[in-house]
Structure prediction request, 71 residues.
Amino acid sequence: MNPPVPLDEIAPWQISARFGPPVRTYDVGPYVIMTYDTNLLTDLSPSLPPPSQSGATPAPTAPTATSVSAP
Prediction:
């Protein structure tokens, strides 16, 4: 695997400290693969808002400044 940009190194102890001990750990070349029996993505903070559902009312937006022309 050759990522297009270098990955930030994350120590296995950092992962275990955040998510708990893995169910299984594999050493594959220079990589450490840690497997869990839960979806770790649900434990992460969302980086993007969830996609809107069709038919759903859009969330209110903050008011923005507008220019007003004199009469």
